[in-house]
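Table S5 (text form). Sequence records supplied for joint modeling of the two-component complex.
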Amino acid sequence: MLIIDFNYNFALMNEILIRKAKISDMATVLDLIKELAEFEKEAKSVSINVNDLIKDGFSDNPKFTCLVADINNSVVGMALFYGRYSTWKGRTLHLEDLIVKKAFRGKGIGKKLYRKFIQIAKVENVRRAEWVALDWNINAIKFYKNSGAKVLSDWKTIQIDKKAINNYLVKK
Amino acid sequence: MLIIDFNYNFALMNEILIRKAKISDMATVLDLIKELAEFEKEAKSVSINVNDLIKDGFSDNPKFTCLVADINNSVVGMALFYGRYSTWKGRTLHLEDLIVKKAFRGKGIGKKLYRKFIQIAKVENVRRAEWVALDWNINAIKFYKNSGAKVLSDWKTIQIDKKAINNYLVKK
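The corresponding structure-token record, covering 344 residues in total, follows.
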């Protein structure tokens, strides 16, 4: 009996289901977002809340698609993406975040989420998928390169926040 | 008469109208895209055609918004943008391209297009607007910094193209 139980639990433990996120997953997804922001030394940069995620992801015109990695009905990872538009390539997909809960890393869960995202890029028939990574996150960059992706070294990301937007517009 | 004519033309020449692009502008917009790609030493990277731009920008669910700079009913510049989603900030705007025809540079047309984009970011009430620039395009980066935008130096852009997507998925 014990052995059967053990095998049963073990099998369940290893059954990683990658599925589309539901509204009820958004609280856990926000926890994952905050966990990644801490890893990236930017914990204070997270301004959104659960209601934003629900409103923006599950309305008539959703702003993103979210996949989750589900083990025993528990969400342990997520991948969040949306469409972009390249004036060179046309429709593309952008992977905004791919996060696996710390305690569940090294089990291939991130790879499953990534693979599902790449499968969706194929189904969507886009000419390109893209994302950004911090230059010191060597392991992630190595993983992406091994998958066939290219790291662009000469493009800089430029951002203007709400305060600077307002400041700019009051200047003539 | 000549003087009146001169003044009349001069006034018209200087009247730069920033307006939403129409379907009939897309051929000129594609020319501008190709001109920028040449400047960026990537002329061969432009895979899209006029029909893609019309289908993707003017359908029920448009993938982008395009502004044009119009002088005497002639399009001499454009700014193309769309919504993105940050898991830190929520809805954001992304400026994919801002292009002014070579012969019309240095006349403040780019600034007018940029300002209109920033105004739209304010109206859309996004917490952030962003774009990328080539690191050797010093003048553009200086302009953006002066406007209050920040250049992020530690984020790398990573891209996977259609061929690499297919290759990755055939591997186990």
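Note: The first helix of chain B runs from residue 2 to 14.
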